Amino acid sequence: MRSVVRFLLLTTTALLISACASNEQEEVLPEEAYYESARDAMNSGNFNEAEQNLDFLETYYPFGRYAEQAQMDLIYARYQNLDLEGARAAADRFLRLNPQSEHADYALYMRGLASYNLDIGLAARYFPIDVAARDPGEQRQAFRDFSNLLNQYPDSEYAPDARQRMIAVRNRMAELELHAARYYIKREAYVAANNRARYVVENFSTSPSVEDALIIQAETFRFLKLNKAADDSIAMLSENFPDSRAFNDEGEFQPTLLERENRSLTSVVTFGLIGDE
């Protein structure tokens, strides 16, 4: 038994010594070698290899002459690898370590871009998903990041694209509100539907969703017998969308979304979730 234990101890020791020797033999390349390898990999589209070399560069030369550029490249490499959370983390780290950098606008832009695509990028590209029907989630964060970019760096080369993406985010959020309004209409929860439609009109006035929101608002006001409010909504619709499909050939408002039905009190107070089916 003692000989067996002794043999196991000797074997374990030999393995540990071998592993240590192997680690000691691992060569640390010069700073420039890691950087050039990373750049070559990115130029050839091999972002996995680029990310690996940039990680080595940050590990072995965190304050080297390529440190700031390597941190920027790491944001891009992770983004291209579809590691959007990693790209945001790398952007946060860059901004934390280089608050006065002339490239801070790039980090903010890439952070916003990662958030912008986090919810919709893969879903819209590979799956038949109605993006407007999904919770915007990170879209609001993307809007904040792009807004910070425009406030801090209004003349940045990334500002025009950021503005367009902010418009897209707002339109997407407006469509989400309309999706909720349509859901409430199906559940006969007309007060809730009206509230969602009014929110679009009041908060997303430049969105393409405003026309549909005004139609829903007018019809639900009529259903609720709030005739003055309904007339105001129709007038607003006529002024801003004179060719709206809601008007017939004579220019009269033609309600089509709602039908009055007898509903139980339970159905009314629970926004249609419980009660008449």
Count helical runs: 12
CATH superfamily of the largest domain: Tetratricopeptide repeat domain
N- to C-terminal distance: 79 Å
Count of the separate structural domains = 2
Assigned CATH class of the largest domain: Mainly Alpha
What is the total tally of β strands?
A: 0
Attribute tags:
mainly alpha; 2 domains; disordered C terminus; Serine Threonine Protein Phosphatase 5, Tetratricopeptide repeat; 277 residues
Describe the structure.
This protein is mainly α and 277 residues long. The chain has 2 domains: 32-157, Tetratricopeptide repeat domain (Serine Threonine Protein Phosphatase 5, Tetratricopeptide repeat, Alpha Horseshoe), CATH 1.25.40; 171-277. It has 12 helices and no strands. The protein has helices at residues 2-25, 31-43, 47-60, 67-80, 84-97, 104-126, 138-152, 159-186, 190-203, 210-223, 227-240, 265-269. Helix 4 (67-80) runs antiparallel to helix 5 (84-97), helix 8 runs parallel beside helix 10 (210-223) and helix 10 (210-223) runs antiparallel to helix 11 (227-240). It is elongated. Residues 17-25, 122-133 and 268-277 have low confidence and may be disordered.
